[in-house]
Design a protein that fits this description.
This protein is an all-alpha fold. The protein contains 13 helices and no strands. The protein has one domain.
Amino acid sequence: MSKFSASDAAFSGFRLVRENLKTVAVWAAAMTVLSILSNALAIQFFGPKLGAFLNYMSDNSTPDPEELVRRASDLAPLMLWSLPYSLLLNGVIFAALNRLVLRPHDSRFAYLRLGMDEVRQAAVWLLVSLVLMGVLFLGSAVSGFLGALGGPTGAFLALLCGLGSIGAMIYLAVRLSFASAVTFDSGKITLFRSLPATKGLFWPLVGAYLLAGVMSVIVILLIWMIVYAAGLIASGDFAATGRMMRADTSSLRAYFTPAGVVQALFSGIFSVLTTLIVFGPAPSIYRELKEGGDGTTDGGW
């Protein structure tokens, strides 16, 4: 069984950023434009309801469940529209990431395409999400049933079941973490047949992914600290700086301000950096294992 360094793999996302600065800049610009367009459409058709929902959430640390459901139901059409948009966006992003790692010489259009590779990536991410949510939902249902039995025994069993379902979801998420890379590499939607590629590597993968996640949080916090420091020096008001970095979505006129554009720009940058730092290790490890002879699968599913 091939080995890899978890600490080295965790920093593979940083290497991708350092070695592909122009590509990162193009991706950030594209994400910024998409963020502005999607927000503008949401404001145009759901501006008042969206503003009311966001204001209610910001003004209530413990929102009333019934009121929350009522306000969220007003945004149901927006949520239904956001699902295919998010799937397509994820498909393009992760296809580009896999192309960058697995086919670095195929750099046309900054690795961005719109074709069957992107469709397959959207499909595999939807399948992985459904599997993980299904495990969590099943565990919650069984936990609720055991809790309804009453007594200390029922509560203890419900707690164990809840923790077990979370553990099972984490285990599957790690074991299926190569599904995107294998799907891109094989040209077939591959879910459970990607499991052999991660066999015996659960804990090293957990270490690599956890370290990458921590580093991503540190990077984002450092960027925010720099931005807030610059805003504080410019305005002299910490609260005003915080308000400046939150775009006003109450109307298109309020959104298309310097603050709104800056917020969209940072949203695009954060999205790209997070994708590369957090999700970059998986295809990088898969490539390393494949070169070592342990990254093959039997095809689709």
